[in-house]
Amino acid sequence: MTEAVLDRPAPGDKTAGGDAAPRRRDRRATLLELSGVSVSFDGFRAINNLSFQIGEPELRAVIGPNGAGKTTFMDIVTGKTRPDTGRVTWGERNVSLLKMSESRIAREGIGRKFQKPTVFEAQTVRENLAMALRNPRGPLDVLLHRKSAAGARRIEEVAHEIGLAEHLPRIAGELSHGQKQWLEIGMLLAQDPRLLLVDEPAAGMTPAEREHTTDLLKRLAERHAVVVVEHDMEFVRRLDCKVTVLHEGSVLAEGSLDHVTANPQVIEVYLGR
Ligand SMILES: Nc1ncnc2c1ncn2[C@@H]1O[C@H](COP(=O)(O)OP(=O)(O)OP(=O)(O)O)[C@@H](O)[C@H]1O
User: Fold this and answer.
1) CA-CA 20 to 30 A from 54: which of 26, 41, 98, 255?
2) In testing the pocket of ligand 1, which one of 45, 48, 50, 72 has its CB within 8 Å of the most ligand atoms?
């Protein structure tokens, strides 16, 4: 299935009437699709006939009260939890993720960032990014040499993207909480993911760090599918993207934040307890 999107013109695009004018872009293809997915833990249905899709590129916020199934959704997509029923398909060829191991799913291009940063504290920012690089080793030294030069370039690129280009020689343990979060996002980027699942990126950040994180996620979503699970509505508002509200393991509402927060059922779920 595809969906039409509005986008900014590409650099150098003279057909769209100037830099500020949005234009209709190629239709966005579905990258990930969950269909009729259910999973129970000891008879309790944590995910209940869940169906939804993520396009590429796209920025999507997934919200919902405690216990709505947000973490379990990510566990299913990354292969940590296997659903009892339903389909989870991926990419142009709609391959099923359900039979793949967690490491195979990661190699397919699905990266997950947990809430708590897990960078290697004793290593430098550069070393952290180097360890994360997707770096298949071939038998020929000459090729290895070329790869390491390319790797160094890629590290610079990623560091620039996450705003840590000036911090590459620093020990990761000395970074601020926000910088560690960006480094970890960079470590995901180093593996060239197509889909990034990001769990509560704004938690514990200063206002300035939150702003940087908003900008970073929005920029990443120009080229990747980015799914942000977040409790903080102000942060979600700033992401300015489509929102999926989960409740009791199903989609309760979907659309802009204004649209979903005007939904009486959503209000009931959030405030009626
Ligand atoms: N391994 C498990 N065993 C038993 N119950 C589980 C397991 N994992 C999740 N659950 C239950 O499934 C439901 C959904 O949990 P989940 O962690 O996905 O919700 P969530 O939306 O991420 O919540 P929160 O916002 O609090 O993190 C909860 O009721 C939880 O207690």
Assistant:
1) 41
2) 72
| Domain ranges (residues) in the chain | 2-9+27-271
Residue 84 half-sphere exposure, CB side, CA atoms within 13 Å? Answer: 12
> In this structure, is the dihedral angle defined by the CA atoms of residues 59, 184, 64 and 76, taken in order, positive or negative?
positive
Task: Label residue 36 left, alpha or beta by phi (over 0 means left) and psi (-120 to 50 means alpha).
Answer: left
With a threshold of 0.90, tell me whether the complex ipTM lies above it: yes
Distance 68 CA to ligand 1 centre (A): 7
pLDDT in tens, 2-31: 443 333 333 333 333 333 334 444 457 999
Question: Rounded to whole angstroms, how far apart are CA atoms 71 and 73?
Answer: 5
Nearest CA to ligand 1 atom 7: 41
CATH number among 3.20.20.70, 3.40.50.300, 3.40.640.10, 3.40.50.720, domain 2-9+27-271: 3.40.50.300
Does ligand 1 have an atom closer than 6 angstroms to the CB of 69?
A: yes
Tokens (6 digits) for 56: 């590429």
Ligand 1 pocket mutation pick from 42, 70, 198 by most atoms within 8 angstroms of CB: 70
